[in-house]
Write a structure and sequence with these properties.
Number of helices: 8
Shape: globular
Radius of gyration: 17 Å
Mean pLDDT: 91
Helix content: over 70%
Order of helices and strands: HHHHHHHH
Structural class: mainly alpha
Low-confidence stretches: none
Strand content: under 5%
Largest sheet: none
Length: 143
């Protein structure tokens, strides 16, 4: 069980790292994460930011994919932490971040939260949970 848990935890960390890297290198310097990194004095990433600015990357990768990767990272973390729990409980815990992500987009759409509402953000927040739901359902049916 420990090897499996470590695999899920490592996968979670990888999703978090990839999403964070996209966010830091490709998003505006005014985003909260970039402001914090700059305030911490991390000057070493300037060259990487400049190089990344030269790339032509689809907007959905820059603006929507990081949220989906972070949603995935959370679900993988919850999966690792809830091994041995009932499927319903696992699905409930795994739904928290995807639901918060989708709700934040709906709130942005109705001007209840600052930001720009985007249907692709909703898609990328929800897709990992849908895949996880199918995975848990199929695993439950087989056992």
């Amino acid at each position: 069980m420990t090897h499996q848990r470590n695999l899920w935890l490592g996968s979670s960390a990888l999703m978090l790292l990839v999403g964070g890297t996209i966010y830091v290198l490709l998003r505006s310097r005014q985003t909260l994460l970039n402001v914090l990194i700059d305030a911490a004095g991390a000057k070493g990433i300037e060259g990487a930011r400049e190089k990344a600015a030269e790339w032509t990357i689809p907007e959905w990768i820059i603006y929507s994919l990081p949220g989906g990767l972070w949603s995935t990272a959370y679900i993988l973390l919850i999966h690792a932490l809830t091994m041995g729990e009932r499927p319903g409980r696992r699905l409930l815990w795994a739904s928290l971040i995807p639901v918060i992500g989708v709700l934040s987009e709906l709130m942005q759409q109705h001007n209840l939260l600052p930001g720009v509402a985007d249907r692709w953000d909703v898609f990328f927040y929800a897709l990992p949970y849908f895949i996880y739901f199918v995975y848990i359902s199929l695993k439950t049916i087989r056992s």
